[in-house]
Amino acid sequence: MNKLLLAALVTGALSTPAFAADYTIMAPASPGGGWDQTARTMQEALQAEGISGNVQVTNVPGAGGTIGLAQFAIQENGNANALIVGGYVMVGAILTNMSPVTLNDVTPIARLTGEAVALVVPAASDIQSVADLVAKLEADPGAVAWAGGSAGGVDHITAGLIAKAVGVDPTQVNYIAYSGGGEALAAILGGQVTVGLSGVSEFASQIEAGELRLLAVSTDSRVPGFDAPTLMEEGVDVAVQNWRMVAAAPGITDEQKAAITADVKAMAESGTWQAALETRGWVDTYLDGDAFATQLEADKSATEAILKDIGLVQ
Predict the structure, then answer these.
(1) Which ranges constitute the DSSP H helices of the chain?
(2) Quick check: 238 and 161 in contact, CB under 8 A?
(3) Burial class, 73, CB count within 10 angstroms (exposed 0-12 / middle 13-18 / buried 19+)
(4) What tens digit of pLDDT does each residue of 83-125 get?
(5) Strand partners, 155
(6) Which one, of 283, 216, 270, lies nearest residue 244 by Cα?
(7) pTM for the whole thing?
């Protein structure tokens, strides 16, 4: 009887998925934006693929992710079950907010995705094209209100680069920063601003429903599934791609970092994740290890140079 019981227990153990870890993922922004979407898509993929048995997502908005970053770095030190999403926006926000906590205070794991920034206006707007927008901007830069994510992030950088490309002083751009995609969307749909900037996935349903008009995308090639030119095609010499990453807590061991990286890589290669990329219009830009560390340092330097160029950082 004891042998039969032992055999049953062993068989049951072998048939139960060997989950690597239960993760908590912080999205350092309000619900509805790109970081929140990334965290919740990770949650779905990690659980659906049997990589993790239980994944929870928390939201800590504010200051381009730097409030959440600081909280994460302090409270999760040494916790190998804690992850945070971030990206291009956070790199800029750290600089513009002069944040004492930076990406050097966490453990970067991998770059996950790239995405075009979409320029949209309400369907009722008299702006029908990028040329119309440029004309208004040239006539009175301050009269054109741009809604986007946090100050110094990719949306703000895109607005500044557009202004500079058409000969308008980028420091005169009237940029209104919102901590979450949902807040910015409400302002755009409500006609409180002239033009909105955000990842194409955040505007997709409103574009499809005819509530928003997509003027252009920021990348150097068109985005499949969206009938819109690039800024370059419209004669504006700007090409920008947002990117998003995941990091682990500071103070973890090399073995713990390797285990987390293995889980994230398995997720990124999974069918669930790849299907989500296609649905959301995200580009697979997965990169980890030393190659990601090198690229991240290059992106930090390039972002600082751009922010200085458009007057957001001294």
Answers:
(1) 2-15, 34-48, 66-75, 88-96, 130-139, 154-165, 181-189, 200-208, 254-268, 271-280, 289-309
(2) yes
(3) buried
(4) 999 999 899 999 999 999 999 999 999 999 999 999 999 999 9
(5) none
(6) 283
(7) 0.81
Q: Which residues of 127-163 are buried (b: 16+ CB within 10 A; e: fewer)?
A: beebeebbeebeeebeebbbbbbbbbbbbbbbbbbbb
Contact 304, 313 (CB under 8 A): yes
Give me 202's structure tokens: 């955040």
In angstroms, the Cα distances linking 208 to 78, 202, 298 are 44, 12, 36
pLDDT digits (tens, 9 = 90+) for 256-284: 999 999 999 999 999 999 999 998 889 99
5, amino acid identity: L
Question: Which residue in 284, 158, 278 sits closest to 224, CA to CA?
Answer: 278
CA distances from residue 295 to 105, 108, 148, 291, 299 in whole angstroms, order as listed: 17, 11, 25, 6, 6
- Token pair 């291009």 in the structure block, residue: 88
